[in-house]
Every structure is written in structure tokens, then in C-alpha cells.
Design a protein that fits this description.
The structure holds two protein chains of two kinds. Chain A is α/β, with parallel strands linked by helices. Chain A is built from eleven helices and 21 strands. In chain A, helix 1 runs parallel beside helix 2, helix 5 crosses helix 7 and helix 9 packs antiparallel against helix 10. By secondary structure, chain B is mainly alpha-helical. Chain B has one domain. Chain B is built from four helices and two strands. A two-stranded antiparallel sheet of chain B has the order 1-2. In chain B, strand 1 and strand 2 form a beta hairpin. Classes of the chains: A alpha/beta, B mainly alpha. At the A-B interface, strand 6, strand 8, helix 8 and strand 19 of A face helix 3 of B.
Amino acid sequence: MRDLIIIGSGPAGLTAAITAAEHGLDILVIDEYLKPGGRLLGQLYEEPGGNWWNGIEESRKLAGRASSLGLDIRLGISVHNIEQIDGSWLVHADCETFETKSLLLATGAAEAPVAIPGWTLPGVMSVGAAQVMTNVHRVKPGQRGVIIGVNVLSSAIAMELKIADVEVAAIALPKTNQVNGKAANPSEVMNALLHVSHMAPSPLVKMGSKLMTNDFMKRMGITLYPKNGVRMWDIPVMLRKAVIRIEGTDQVEGVTLATVTAEGKIIPGTEEVIGCDFVCIAGGLYPLAELAALTGCPFYHIDELGGFVPLHSEDMRTPLDGLYVAGNITGIEGAKVAMSQGKTAALAIAKDHGQDIADTSLSEAVRQISSTRSDAHIQFHSEVEAGRRKLQEYWEQHAAGMRNVMV
Amino acid sequence: MTDRDMIVCRCEEVTYGELVDTAGQFACNSRELKLRTRAGMGYCGGRTCRSLVDAIALAATERDVTQITLKYQPPVRPVHFGDLGAIPND
């Protein structure tokens, strides 16, 4: 039996593995992808100040560190079930079952789709898939693409495609229907972008600082937004046009765009077709909680964190003995926050294994998560800190409830 | 193609129109919508369409923030029957 199994070798999982190994734990890391690094692998962007964040390089550093510590990392293996039996955890992977005292779930996030007529045609992919093809496998997803869904992730990936010399004809909204929700509402999308303005397309930032002062100005902002979009790195970002159909018979041949009102209603007679050979759909990220959900761990839906998240403390413990979480499974944030969560989880786990971890070093690690969060260049939700506070309240209510039961 | 003909659940070939009509007729939550239409019950286990099925159900019902809509059940990845029956070796 292992001391610790970590599921997921992204920034959270690898950082946790390194920290726990430094404290002498016997660890196994499992990941279903072929390479360690998780979603770090796809990331490439310029930080304010001119430094480039190169995810492949960061993954290499983490994996190098892990291998110098002799860590056992198994790749290309999927975990399909986990269960707790007699105080230990059984991890059921493809052809093998592993047993461990402690289990850290660092499974990251999944992408949500947007649904547009034609979205099942070959050539339509999630924006993350286009990122992995381009940055990890170095295969062009196509010659000319359209991205549907305007958010932090899709604008970052649009720029990465541009760097790779893949033409992005437009980033536009999805059409309004019952499933596309706020992602199809120009005013909502503009507000969301302006709130994460340090990351948003720069022309928006300039407009944004003036527009944020009151609701009237915000509405004016979207009304005055140029119909043909604002160019970001030469890619038109269209907040007043929506893709109403993806065109093609056997594969993607183009999209039909239409101008929409500030609320996302299609203005008849404005339809136009633009040609492309691939389409990316970008509905945002949500915490990939499926394994945690099998354990009976309590969950709470917190919009600011991206969906349902497993209940956990600031030091990454869940209410279940020996079960810990770190990274995007706890809420959608950047890789640096995930790393600091991974480190914290590993310290909590080492402490629970009887290692000599001072309370002060654990609380310092918790503080590090907050300071990393406030310094983050990438923020997926403007109210992420409020979301974290909500979860902390749920944790305290849960802990109080448990105390009452014991009395 | 209109929204109504658009496939939402690819595995079970359930359309947007069928989901919206069912949700409207029965004011059902995600689970009931899944059971009535089979959306999310196919090979992929709802990994592609779960957020869409949820969104349609939420138009007619309130969200319970403490209950995951569309329960996860093992196996959460496709797995061979032979592998499921393998004997633990660690």
C-alpha cells in the first residue's frame, strides 16, 4: 500500500508530488494523458511586464524535479472508480487497482460546450482541443478558424493560434438559446471581460475603464461597440455578432453570423456567411469533479468557482478521511494558484502521516494561495475570492454540524 | 438546420427540441429529463452534454446548490468488462 496516490499530473498534482516526496512519502502519480503537465502544456502567453509564461517549459521543470526525486508517475492510465474500504482507498485504473492510505484528487477542469446548429460537424472542436493540437502536438487544427464564445480562455487561445500562424477569422458570440445562457448575451459578456480587464483584449480595457462607472455607460458601451468587432492581435472580437449556424455538409465549410441586439436578439436581414475550415466552441471551464462525486464527499455549486466543487478546507482537506483536493477541481483559476494549492495539500497530507510539519508552515502555505491569487495575471471569474469565502463558510457550517453530532 | 433539430446528446441522438419540449411539458429536473429522453445516458456518460441538459432543466426548476445534477456513477471512463473483473495486484 502507498502512502499517497495523486490523480492528475498537472501543476497541482506535480507540485504536491514533489512536496510530499521531499517529506519522505511513498507516492504514485497517475494521469490519463500521455505527458505530465496537464493543461500547463498548452499555455503560452505574455505576462504584464513582458515575461512569457511558457507552459511546456514549466511542465518540463516540474517533471524534471519529480524525476530527480525518483517519483513514480504513470501516464496514459485512466481511473474509472475510487472507493474507501477499511480506512484505505482503492483506486481502480484501466487494468490495475492500487491501494493507498491518502488520496489527492488533482483532476483539473473540463470544458463546457456551446450548442449551435451544426456543432456536431467534423471540424468543430473545443477551443482547448485546438490548443492541445497546436501547442502540444504541433498540428494545425485547420487553416482558418472561427472561435465561438468570448471569454478569457478563448481569447488567450486565439492569440496562441495566431502565434502558430493559424488564421482566426473571428471570435464571436454563440446565438441565444436555452443552453448558451449568458455566453450569448453581449452585455453580460462585455461586463465579464471588463472585470478581468488585466487579461482582456487591450482595446476593451481602454474603453472599459470609462464604462465601468455606471450601468448606463455599460449599456452604452455595448451599444456603441463596433459591429465588425474590435481587433485584438488583428483578430476581430465580435461582441455584437453571433454565430447562428455552422455550415457544411460533410465537414465545416463556414459559419453564418448575424448582428444581435445588446441582449443577444438576432436582427433579421443581417446574416452573412464567412468561410473557415474549423470551428472552436468555448463555453468555459468547470471543475472536473467526477471522481470526488463517487466518494460521497459533499458538494456545493458556486458560480464564481465555475460549478460544483467538493467541500474542502483552506488546507485542502475534504471531510472524508484521507481524501484531499487541489487545483481546478476546487474552482477555476490559473496554474500558479493550482501549484500553491498542491503544495498546501502535500503539507497537510505529510502532517496527517505524522511527519513533522509545523502549524506555521501549513498556515504560511495557505497564505501563499491567497497572495498568489491576488497577484494572478489570469482570472477566470472576477468574484473568485467571494466564491472562496462562500466555500469556507460551508466548510465551517459543516465542521460545526459535525461537532454538534459528536456532542 | 434549426435549433430544434440540433443534436444535444450525440451518443443517444437526443435533439434540443425534444429536450425543451420534455422539460416544458413535465417541468422536470435534470435527472428526470435524462430518464425521460436518455440524454446523457450513452457511451460517454454525459461528459459532452451534461451542462446543456442541466441548462435546459434549470429553465423550469430551481437549482439545489448542494446536489450535483446528473449523478456520476462508476465507471466514469469507458472500460472493458475484462478489465473491470481484473484481480487487484497492488
